[in-house]
């Protein structure tokens, strides 16, 4: 932790904006040979890092687009005064289409219901909506199936002629980009090229065509097209440990999660620890209480395993992680209350990483950082 953050706090998530900016620059260098732009994906409060400060830092480091899932997330960024090109992709019927059109937010359309709602909103707003058509090239989640694509493209072009829509983008999303060589990757690329070719032949003139998330940005240059949508890499986390470490890609973790040890005490051998007594002290020892729990996003699945750097050593959560707190066995070491317990960070000081917590909880590092709750203050350093 940097010296400037040492106001006593129960816990804090330190967000290193210099690391985020360096990560954006590293991503830009990777995609510049293909002249692709970078969209900073700041959905889910920038994967738990704080949407507005991360959006501003990313733009400052050369990202030219922002991406969110929900329209609410996009409109919140606009309300904060951020004017950069901004796209949001997860719409439901009755969503705030008109607000998005008026705020110059690019909206994603995957089907006819959405095209109908956005054109109606554009008519009310008296200006064209910026619409990006999403193709389902094989993910099987959001997006328009190839069989339905001609109708969607034709209707979008008709709306363009009528002046209610400007088709600004054609885009898709990978299913298995984090598994290089997976046959679905080549298949999706081929379907995407065909769907883009059809739309362009019919008259769509998109500003951007895009498909790559972080793993494709890092490992698949042929998927960069005009724009890459990077989330996790920008936060300095590898999309998957099998692909490499953050350092292998020139990335540095942005979030450090730390707490102030709330209590330390000596306990005898065979003392039960935490709910259910899933940990019994094997000998006379000392215990430390870490004031973070699953209400803060610490995964209960990591009970008995989650690693924490306390008093110069990595200890494991002893027994169950509770709603607000968990215990570590300090092995008889003397640690003062108020000592720093680092759950994860970049790793340079011997602290665990978000990836270590993901492994302990049987999940992915995306989930570890994204779930850190609102009760944990974010402390921004290196603004
Ligand atoms: C549509 C879309 N694009 C891009 C991303 C960013 O993915 P990543 O964090 O792997 O870069 C996401 C995140 O899940 C997404 O849903």
> What's the Cα radius of gyration?
23 Å
CATH architecture of the largest domain: Alpha-Beta Barrel
Question: Compounds present?
Answer: pyridoxal-5'-phosphate
What amount of the residues lies in strands? 15-25%
**What is the terminal separation in angstroms?**
15 Å
Q: Please give the oligomerization state of what you see.
A: single chain
CATH fold descriptor of the largest domain:
TIM Barrel
Describe this structure in words.
- The protein has 383 residues and is of the alpha/beta class.
- It has two domains: 64-233, TIM Barrel (Alpha-Beta Barrel), CATH 3.20.20.10; 255-381, Lyase, Ornithine Decarboxylase, Chain A, domain 1 (Beta Barrel).
- 30% of the residues lie in helices and 23% in strands.
- The protein contains eleven helices and 19 strands.
- α1 crosses α3 and α7 packs parallel to α8 (183-202).
- The relative contact order is 0.14.
- The structure holds pyridoxal-5'-phosphate.
- Pyridoxal-5'-phosphate binds at residues 41, 89, 173, 213-214, 229-233, 239.
């Amino acid at each position: 932790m940097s010296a400037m953050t040492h106001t006593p706090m129960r816990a804090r998530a330190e967000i290193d904006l210099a690391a985020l900016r360096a990560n954006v620059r590293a991503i830009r260098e990777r995609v510049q040979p293909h002249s692709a732009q970078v969209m900073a994906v700041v959905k889910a409060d920038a994967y738990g890092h704080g949407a507005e400060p991360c959006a501003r830092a990313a733009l400052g480091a050369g990202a030219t687009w922002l991406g969110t899932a929900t329209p609410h997330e996009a409109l919140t960024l606009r309300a904060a005064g951020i004017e950069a090109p901004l796209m949001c992709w997860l719409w439901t019927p009755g969503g705030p289409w008109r607000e998005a059109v008026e705020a110059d937010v690019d909206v994603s359309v995957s089907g006819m219901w959405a095209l109908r709602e956005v054109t109606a909103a554009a008519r009310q707003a008296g200006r064209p909506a910026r619409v990006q058509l999403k193709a389902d090239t094989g993910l099987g989640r959001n997006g328009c199936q190839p069989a339905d694509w001609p109708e969607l493209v034709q209707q979008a072009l008709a709306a363009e002629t009528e002046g209610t829509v400007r088709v600004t983008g054609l885009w898709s999303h990978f299913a298995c980009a984090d598994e290089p060589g997976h046959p679905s990757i080549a298949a999706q690329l081929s379907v995407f090229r065909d769907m883009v070719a059809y739309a362009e032949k019919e008259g769509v003139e998109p500003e951007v065509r895009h498909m790559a998330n972080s793993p494709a940005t890092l490992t698949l240059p042929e998927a960069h097209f005009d724009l890459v949508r990077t989330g996790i890499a920008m936060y300095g986390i590898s999309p998957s440990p099998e692909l490499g470490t953050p350092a292998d890609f020139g990335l540095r973790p942005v979030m450090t999660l730390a707490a102030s040890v709330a209590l330390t005490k000596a306990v005898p051998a065979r003392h039960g620890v935490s709910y259910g007594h899933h940990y019994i002290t094997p000998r006379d020892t000392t215990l430390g209480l870490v004031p973070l729990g699953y209400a803060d996003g610490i995964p209960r699945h990591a009970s008995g395993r989650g690693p924490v750097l306390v008093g110069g050593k990595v200890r494991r959560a002893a027994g169950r992680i509770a709603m607000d707190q968990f215990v570590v066995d300090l092995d008889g070491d003397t640690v003062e209350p108020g000592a720093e317990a680092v759950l994860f960070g970049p790793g340079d000081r011997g602290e665990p990483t978000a990836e270590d917590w993901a492994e302990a909880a049987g999940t992915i590092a995306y989930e570890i950082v994204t779930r850190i709750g609102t009760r944990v203050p974010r402390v921004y350093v290196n603004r």
